[in-house]
Amino acid sequence: MLPTDTLLDAAGRWFLSSGIQESSGGVARYYRSDAGRNAPVSTEITGYAVSALVFLHQRTKQDEYLDAAVRAARFLTRCAWDPALETFPFELASAAAPCRLSYFFDCGIIVRGLLAIWRATDDPEFRDAAIQGGRAMLADFCGAESIHPIVSLPEKRALPCEARWSASPGCYQLKSAMAWFDLYEATGETAFLRSYEYALEAALSNERDFLPGHPNCEKVMDRLHAYAYFLEGLLPVLDRSDCAAAFRSGLDRIAGYLREIAPQFARSDVYAQLLRARLYGEKLAGIALDSDAAEHETEQAATFQMDSPDARIRGGFGFGLKIGEQMPFVNPVSTAFAVQALALWSDRQNNALRVSRQALI
Question: Whole-model pTM?
């Protein structure tokens, strides 16, 4: 494993120099190394990238990260936001291919990214856009019995649920609902707090059913990634005994399935999310950290960082391994999660760990 500063710098260079952030400021879903091209720009991934670039700026104090974060945020506020529909579409529309979907989860990630850049710059454009996005989430996705995962555009009709986890309501939505909690802190609007609490109650009632959730072990690995979102969404309420108990139990559940499935298929983001959750849980709720497990997850997460003479690859983190072979996806979210987790682990090793729920990517 590279020294943390070297690892962090390499990953940061990838964000800045690989072309994963395009000239518009938007960030591609991933770089496909076997085909030599980016996937389309994604509003959700751009939201994650804003939070990641703010984190890198906070760690390094290098202004180029903040500049890149501002460009990404302005893409979201000035290009991605549809003022007529009052929402963030899944991807940018064009005359040839209008975007007909908006995802609850994506909108929450975007709102959290906009709040992160607002805190870093104090620019009201970003705060105002975050509030607009949060209110749109309230208006468009809150059903009588659940939070709709996807609505069609322009009519904003809830789509029927599907078997795949991202197209059905579930505990993973709590990560996105955390945007409402953050907005409540920023504005004092109690509608945001009530909606987070509604999402929390639903998540606590159904989280035990989320895993394994599928007979195919590779699909279970994908659901571990989503279930980790549930744990992340619990961070505002880890002072509650029931939430801390669910968090503690969830760590064990993810770790058990991960050990079982990893020889066949392992996702880098699952290792990073589990390590990061352990560190947050220890710091915020006094949950005992399994040091041996955390060491293993640190080592495994670091192995996904890619070394190449190609700047489009070098320093980024791969999405996953199948039967020990790297898959051809250099992934911004995997890179962001891994960099944050490994940096926090290094802080803990140096007795300097500080965690901020708002800084969670």
Answer: 0.96
Whose CA is closest to 269, among 229, 219, 238, 312?
A: 229
Q: Please name which of 249, 301, 303 lies closest in space to residue 273, comparing C-alpha atoms.
A: 301
Give which of 139, 143, 156, 147 is closest to 102, Cα–Cα.
156
Q: List beta partners, residue 27.
A: 21
What is the mean pLDDT of the segment spanning 250-278?
98
Q: Which residues contact 12 (CB under 8 A, 6 or more apart)?
A: 56, 60, 62, 65, 315, 339
Specify the CATH number of the domain 4-359.
1.50.10.10
Q: How far apart are CA 188 and CA 181, in angstroms?
A: 10
The three-state secondary structure class of 103 is: strand
Report the DSSP beta bridge partners of residue 328: none
65: nearest Cα among 112, 124, 121, 109: 121
Q: pLDDT tens across 306-319, in order?
A: 999 999 999 999 99
DSSP designation for 172: T
With a CB cutoff of 8 Å and minimum separation 6, the contacts of 236 are: 178, 181, 196, 357
CA distance 194 to 117: 25
